[in-house]
Every structure is written in C-alpha cells, then in structure tokens.
Amino acid sequence: MRITKLLAAAFGAALVGIATAGSAGAIVGGVPADEQYPFMASLQVPDEPRFHCGATLIDDDWLLTAGHCVDSFDAGQLTARIGSPDRTTGGEERRITEKVLHPQYKKEYLAQYDFALLKLDRPVDLPAVRIADAGQVPGKDTRLIGWGRECSEFDCGEVPAFPRQLKQYDAEVGDDAECAKTDGSVDTCVRPPATGDSVCQGDSGGPALIRDAAGRWEQIGITSRFGGTAEEAVCGGEPDIFADPVAVRDWIGQTIGG
C-alpha cells in the first residue's frame, strides 16, 4: 500500500500536479489482516470499474477519509461498504448523502488539510474508531491497513489490481523532517519499515492506528500522500504523509454534532 506521486485517489491514474496517496494503493508487502477492523470502510464509485479509497467509521453515520479521495465527486456518486475485510461483499452497505471537505482543504500540488467527512444515508450498528487525544512522538508504533495496490512501481499497469481482502503492516511515526513538504501542524510523517512495506495507490483515506492503554485501536492518521523526495514515486522505501485528525478534532466534532 503506498502513497505514490499522485495518489490517484479515484482511479489509479496519476493526477497531474498532486502527490497524494489516493494512489497509495494496496499495501505493498504487508500481510492479510489478522484481526477484525469493524470501523474500516471501502469507498466505491458505482459508475466506475474499480475500488476507490479507504475510510473509517467515526460515528454511527459518519465516515472520515482524505479530501483528495472525494473532492471531484458529488456525495450521491459514492457508496461505502463498512465492517468487512472483503471490499466486494459482507459488512454494511450505505449510500453517501453529504460530503464535507475541511474549509482549508487545498488540492493544488500537495493536498493540504486533506480531510473529508461523509454522511451515511442511515446509521450502522458497528463500533466506530476513536480519534486519539494527542499527536504521537517519533518512534511510536502504528498500524496501516488498506486495499491499495500491491505493485511497487507507480507505472505498473493501466488498471492495477487491488486485493479483495484487507491487508496490514506495522511501521513507526517519524519526525516531521523525515517527510518532504509536510505541515507538522496537520500532518504526521510515517517512516518506512526495513521490510519495505508501504501504502500505495488505493490506500488513500484509510487509517494509521495505535493501541490505547486498553488495547483498543485509535486513529492518528489518514493516508494522504507520498513523503519522499524521488522524482518518480514508487511504493516502498520512502516515508509517507498522513493527515492528522487529532489536529482537527474541533472541526470534526462541530460537523458531526459530537
């Protein structure tokens, strides 16, 4: 799963001028998810032939995802499957009725304030993931999950295959200086593990997770964009940038009424 030069959020094609993780596809490397993540959602565009992005259930009728995943779509064009490790079946299916981009979101070259909230057409009876209370220090273990593509090269096929089953890998929070063109006030840098595992095209919008004191998952990031310096981004071997939902907790609460 690696955020590539243009996380071509929607279709896996590089979006000119944006180095986002929409293209951060399937986890490159990693392993099949070995536990349940009932808050994990896959975003679909029914009129398109492929999987779109990840998202997380943060309330019974609201999803959190990356702004660049949904900025070019109307809410009614999107659907979500929530709570299933298989993005094609199971879980709960819902239509999206409202899309709210962060008011400071800017696409341009790099997605800034890369946050979006999606309202479901009706609530789901599944546990939501809690947003962490504070940002994390470098060296903190984090887990990345998603259905992004498994090919490490950015240009590895006109229609890259995305796995049906959810994948995961573990990494560490990095220092801001380890990522290129990151805004430490609203972004979190994640350093690549020695194994080369990475997010990739299709992983955008999915979460970076940590365990709380009771062992429950909390969200500290949203897969956003490539954080390395390579001219042609590939999946694996360089850091990635995750939008930090902790930094916009007030906006999230005001929007969803929490």
Task: Explain this structure.
By secondary structure, the chain is mostly beta strands. It folds into two domains: 40-128 and 250-257, Thrombin, subunit H, CATH 2.40.10.10; 130-246, Thrombin, subunit H (Beta Barrel), CATH 2.40.10. 5% of the residues lie in helices and 30% in strands. It contains two helices and 14 strands; from the N terminus they run ββββαββββββββββα. The chain has helices spanning 67-70, 249-256; strands at residues 31-32, 40-44, 51-59, 62-65, 79-82, 92-101, 116-120, 130-131, 141-146, 167-173, 187-191, 207-211, 217-226, 240-243. Strands 9-10-11-14-13-12 form a six-stranded antiparallel beta barrel. The protein has a six-stranded antiparallel barrel with strand order 2-3-4-7-6-5. It is globular. 54% of the residues are buried. Residues 2-26 have low confidence and may be disordered. Residues 27-257 form the Peptidase S1 domain. Residues 1-21 form the signal peptide.
List keywords for this structure.
258 residues; mainly beta; Thrombin, subunit H; six-stranded antiparallel beta barrel; 2 helices; 30% strand; disordered N terminus
